[in-house]
Amino acid sequence: QATSLRPTKTFEYSIRIVGGLLGAFSVTGDGRLLVRAWDSVESLLQSPFASSPTVLPRMYDILFPTRGNNMLFYKIYSRLYEWGRDKFTTEHHYNSLAGVGSF
């Protein structure tokens, strides 16, 4: 938990935090990671894109936590994703640890 709100590099945040959470979700299928990735994207869309005077996001901005909790929706989505992945693909049988170092 952050103790103070400080400006964050929005590009680095989107690449490292959101990308890492989505990558970990694709390997594990854990719905909590998808929920946190969604919350991270929501905070990006609410702060730098909404407050920028141009069409480009601000380079540095304070990212605020999202308002609202859609945990049930994302849990259901995660379960549907897992079911579809298991039913229609063999992708989950061939996951390796080679990409874990990039998270």
Query: How many domain regions?
Result: 1
Mean pLDDT across all residues, rounded?
70
Work out the radius of gyration: 16 Å
Distance between the termini: 21 Å
Structure classification = mainly alpha
Helix content: 55-70%
Strands of the widest sheet, in order across it, are 1-2
Q: Let me know the largest β-sheet.
A: 2 strands, antiparallel
What share of the residues does DSSP label as strand, in percent?
under 5%
Q: Specify the oligomeric state.
A: single chain
Shape: elongated
Question: Order of helices and strands, N to C?
Answer: EHHHEH
Number of helices: 4
What are the key terms here?
103 residues, mainly alpha, two-stranded antiparallel sheet, 4 helices, elongated
Question: Would you write up a description of this structure?
Answer:
Belongs to the glycosyl hydrolase 47 family. InterPro entries: 6hp_glycosidase-like_sf, Glyco_hydro_47, Seven-hairpin_glycosidases. It holds the Pfam family Glyco_hydro_47. This protein is mainly alpha-helical and 103 residues long. It has one domain (8-98). Helices cover 55% and strands 4% of the residues. The chain contains four helices and two strands; from the N terminus they run E-H-H-H-E-H. It has helices at 10-28, 31-46, 48-51, 71-88, and strands at residues 8-9, 60-61. It has a two-stranded antiparallel sheet with strand order 1-2. Helix 1 (10-28) runs antiparallel to helix 2 (31-46) and helix 2 (31-46) crosses helix 4 (71-88). The chain starts with 7 loop residues before the first strand and ends in a 15-residue tail after the last helix.
